[in-house]
Design the sequence.
């Protein structure tokens, strides 16, 4: 009976997560270089039938292990090309897997209901949903990290510890296969947990010959081909420059403060419960499961904050642990009296401001967007969220609070994402820009002379590589090539180098994309 109930819960979690994150896929254009990079790498793998020697603008691409581009290739195989839908599908599926892993870990740490509610909390967190629609390897790495945590807890608390430890190392290997050393974060957490619980001898429990062997084998699958294709460039440029030195420097206090703020925003609306959860966790810290959930957050939080380079996507690995704590808090009968009314009023004010922002977004969006929903739909979701949060806190009804807030947030996210994607497509239409470039180039060479970004999204929609130009001398030499190539220049470079550009330069077209003016130029005959 227990196995059947867990299977039913698993199917429920997967169904709810899929229903929220899968429908919008393919609606948004690819508008950033970071997202276009993985779509282009996967497209090169697919077109040239290579697994390791992928190229980006003609140069070998080994900045990240290949598992994530492989997953895009797998999703694109049936169509024979990388579409927006296929490129985004791996991140959405990884989000579903992360929600499922959070349920499994919550069930093992606490009990079934805590796992279910933790999964709902994670799924309806703003930052998790937002990243589920992006082309990022981080989502996949986080999924493997949560599953690694699940297998580790099984290994240290339940029967069959050897098999569970093998599962832990396999998930670690897949995490590294996705994003390099960052995939080892769960190993650091596990080591700190064993050290704090049992001292140095406790670290022996991490030893697993079979698990370690599988981890090494998974790493060698991609590491050996990468080394074979150029040891010096890979070790010096990637291992040291991109993976170690990029992070191992002193962070700025401003960057840390920005990350803390982004964490607060990314976990909304559940961040409003943080004071209650923290107090209850402090009161019940004697329980190993509570300490593990807190440590799972704290260790990763410290490692992320001391990194020299901060990105919002790095915070993704923190959300499952705080979702577990919220789910546990909501189901623990030892909660004390309902919170002070000032907290409830403050939360209601924050939610009301959110409702106003959603309403304003619905009013100010262009009226000719094809999927523009009525602002009543997201606004009703926020109001449901506010009522459930306020009444649940006031009356001490955590079940009503959790389900109501999750339902309201799900409605808000599901309704708003279409309007947001339409706004992105209307204001950053790089697909139309690429069509204009092709009209002037006529299949010929195209260069790109830009600052702050590579504009790889133009390569994606143009269907071929652009030639990057870094200096004005390179630009002038490129313009004089046979065939009279077209060059894309962004606003900043145009203003910076305009006086040094050739006098015979002719502006073919001027297009506004992403809040800046893009010029297409060519040398007059």
Sequence:
């Amino acid at each position: 009976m227990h196995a059947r109930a867990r299977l039913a819960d698993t199917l429920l979690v997967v169904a709810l997560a899929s229903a929220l994150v899968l429908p919008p896929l393919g609606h948004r254009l690819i508008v950033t270089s970071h997202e276009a990079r993985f779509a282009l790498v996967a497209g090169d793998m697919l077109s040239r039938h290579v697994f390791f020697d992928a190229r980006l603008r003609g140069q070998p691409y080994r900045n990240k292990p290949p598992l994530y581009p492989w997953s895009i290739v797998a999703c694109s195989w049936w169509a024979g090309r990388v579409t927006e839908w296929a490129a985004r599908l791996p991140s959405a599926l990884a989000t579903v897997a992360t929600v499922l892993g959070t349920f499994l870990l919550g069930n093992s740490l606490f009990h079934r209901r805590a796992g279910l509610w933790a999964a709902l909390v994670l799924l309806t967190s703003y930052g998790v949903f937002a990243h589920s629609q992006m082309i990022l390897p981080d989502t996949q790495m986080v999924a493997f990290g949560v599953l690694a945590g699940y297998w580790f807890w099984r290994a240290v608390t339940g029967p069959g510890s050897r098999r569970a430890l093998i599962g832990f190392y396999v998930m670690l290997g897949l995490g590294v296969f996705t994003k390099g050393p960052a995939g080892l974060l769960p190993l650091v957490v596990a080591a700190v947990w064993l050290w704090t619980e049992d001292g140095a001898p406790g670290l022996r429990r991490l030893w697993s010959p079979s698990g370690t062997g599988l981890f090494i084998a998974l790493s060698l699958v991609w590491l050996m081909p990468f080394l074979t294709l150029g040891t010096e460039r890979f070790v010096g440029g990637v291992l040291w420059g991109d993976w170690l030195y990029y992070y191992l420097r002193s962070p700025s206090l401003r960057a840390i403060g920005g990350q803390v703020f982004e964490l607060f925003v990314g976990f909304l609306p559940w961040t409003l419960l943080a004071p209650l959860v923290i107090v209850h966790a402090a009161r019940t810290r004697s329980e190993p499961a509570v300490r593990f959930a807190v440590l799972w957050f704290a260790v990763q939080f410290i490692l992320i904050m001391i990194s020299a380079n901060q990105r919002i996507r790095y915070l993704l690995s923190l959300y499952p642990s705080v979702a577990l704590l919220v789910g546990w808090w909501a189901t623990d009968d030892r909660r004390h009296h309902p919170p002070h009314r000032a907290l409830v009023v403050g939360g209601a004010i924050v939610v009301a401001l959110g409702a106003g922002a959603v309403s304003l977004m619905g009013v100010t969006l262009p009226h000719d967007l094809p999927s523009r929903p009525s602002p009543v739909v997201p606004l009703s979701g926020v109001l449901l969220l506010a009522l459930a949060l306020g009444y649940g806190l006031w009356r001490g009804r955590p079940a009503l609070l959790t389900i109501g807030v999750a339902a309201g947030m799900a409605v808000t996210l599901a309704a708003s994402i279409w309007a947001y994607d339409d706004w992105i497509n209307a204001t950053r239409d790089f697909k139309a820009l690429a069509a204009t470039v092709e009209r002037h180039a006529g299949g010929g060479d195209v260069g790109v002379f830009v600052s702050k970004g590579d504009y790889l999204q133009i390569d994606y929609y143009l269907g071929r590589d652009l030639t990057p130009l870094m200096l004005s001398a390179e630009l002038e030499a490129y313009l004089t090539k046979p065939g009279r190539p077209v060059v894309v220049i962004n606003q900043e470079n145009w203003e910076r180098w305009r006086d040094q550009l050739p006098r015979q330069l002719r502006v073919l077209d001027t297009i506004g994309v992403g809040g800046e003016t893009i010029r297409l130029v060519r040398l007059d005959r």
About this structure: Residues 358-370 have pLDDT under 50 and may be disordered. The chain has three domains: 2-119+130-252, 341-427, 430-523.
